[in-house]
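Translate structure to sequence.
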């Protein structure tokens, strides 16, 4: 049904475009087939296959809130890679405090390379704030953060975070 609606919209748009200014050109307007995506522009340089499959698989961490473990997929950022490297050396245990009824925040004890961007978060997001603060969300906020990752399965997330301070341990994913 959606494909039919899309085809009708494309036909109507094509009809409008050919009706406006078509006097200068006798060639009909081309319309894409309803199930085809626009072709990608040719690459200026040939693509080379990756030499390491390790870089292709997403980085994972275990995020244990009090005694409840969750798996997180890390973002493709320098900060997330640096955090993963630190956690590979030794698990990191932090105390996070509730802030504003939508997040838990606490000091990492070290700085990570920040690349802050205006970001709207949602439950399960993990971000870096001010270069050295870990923030995990059980609600939503919009602010300037560096993305670190996201909890894969939010089942039990809100209950684990509860109210007040929580102990969070970041460790290599099993």
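Result:
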């Amino acid at each position: 049904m959606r494909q039919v609606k899309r085809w009708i919209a494309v036909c109507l748009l094509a009809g409008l475009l050919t009706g406006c200014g078509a006097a200068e050109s006798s060639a009909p307007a081309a319309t894409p087939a309803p199930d085809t995506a626009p072709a990608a522009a040719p690459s200026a340089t040939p693509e080379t296959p990756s030499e390491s499959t390790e870089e292709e698989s997403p980085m994972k961490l275990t995020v244990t809130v009090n005694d409840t473990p969750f798996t997180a997929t890390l973002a493709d950022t320098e900060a997330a890679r640096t955090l993963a490297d630190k956690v590979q050396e030794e698990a990191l245990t932090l105390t996070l405090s509730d802030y504003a009824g939508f997040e838990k925040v606490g000091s990492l004890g070290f700085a990570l390379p920040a690349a802050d961007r205006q970001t709207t978060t949602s439950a399960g997001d993990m971000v870096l704030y001010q270069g050295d603060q870990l923030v995990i969300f059980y609600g939503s906020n919009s602010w300037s953060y560096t993305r670190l990752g996201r909890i894969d399965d939010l089942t039990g997330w809100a209950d684990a975070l509860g109210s007040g301070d929580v102990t969070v341990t970041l460790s290599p994913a099993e």
